[in-house]
Amino acid sequence: MKLGIIGAGKIVGEFLSFVGDIEGIDLVAIAATKRSEDKLSDISASYNIDKIYVDYRKLIEDADVEVVYVAVPNFLHYEVMDYAIKLGKDIICEKPFCGNLREAKDIFERAFAKDLIVLEAASHRFIPNALAVRDELKNLGDIKIVSFNYSQYSSRYDKFKEGEIAPVFDRSKNGGALMDINFYNVDYLSMLFGRPKAVEYFPNMEKGIDTSGILYLDYGDFKAIAIGSKDSDASLVNTIQTDRGTIEITDAINSFSSFRIKESGKNVFREVNLNTPCHRMVYEFRQFLEIISQRDMEKARELSEISLDTSWILTEARKFSAIVFPND
Description:
Helix content is 36%, strand content 25%. It folds into two domains: 2-122, Rossmann fold (3-Layer(aba) Sandwich); 125-281 and 311-321, Dihydrodipicolinate Reductase, domain 2. It has an eight-stranded mixed β-sheet with strand order 8-9-10-7-11-12-13-14. Strands 3-2-1-4-5-6 form a six-stranded parallel β-sheet, sandwiched between helices. The chain has 328 residues and is α/β, with parallel strands linked by helices. Helix 4 runs parallel beside helix 5 (101-113), helix 5 packs antiparallel against helix 11 (297-321) and helix 9 packs across helix 11 (297-321).
């Protein structure tokens, strides 16, 4: 898989830290903005990436690039993927996939119509522990209450309060706690349960953006709460309660280093950890390599349904709370 990277932020640094351990991924090129040119040169030298671009279009136009890894700020995802589809490139796009459901549907429909593979990078979809929970739920009776909380004080929040607005806190750039940190909770709910019957979102708003919020999802027979905060901290305890037991996930959904199960009426936990020692993103990129190299369109479409369900929830949540993005 000849890969071109678009972006040079934190997530790209994480990706580069392990990609050399995955046989079959050939880093062909990297692109970012003109102001990041020195950083691109350093990355190129450190990771033996031959080509540097300061215009993402030039990277996509490069005949040597077969797959585009989109790791730019949220509001640019649709624009970059749109151009990649026009030039017939497969795509791996960081979360959140698009700003709204309309854009997400458009990207998948046009890509699949051309037999192109488009994949959303969401690590929990592939982490063994996260997959194991789905299997364990089959033996735990009827689900009653789901409560996920990913609250992490942002390193950019203090500057935000002072008036320096990073993309993650910028409504015009598809920012906010719902789209950024609460995404993981929402996407895992989509992966496990699909679309709910109703969605309501109650955000804490500052300077026109949600810095934290509580999302309520009604699945009919059970209810779910997803809390995401970038303006405060909390212990990362996530629970799925059934009439026969409880599953506890004691760290962030996107890491999922372990979980434990307690039967109802008992105080004894069964600890579960099926992960191997590696970066949390290794699992997804191994799968991406396999899906793309084998042209597994069935698996790509299956994963796209999770992305579309998540996009539907996020879009409905913003509608409920009147958070409007420019691309809406």
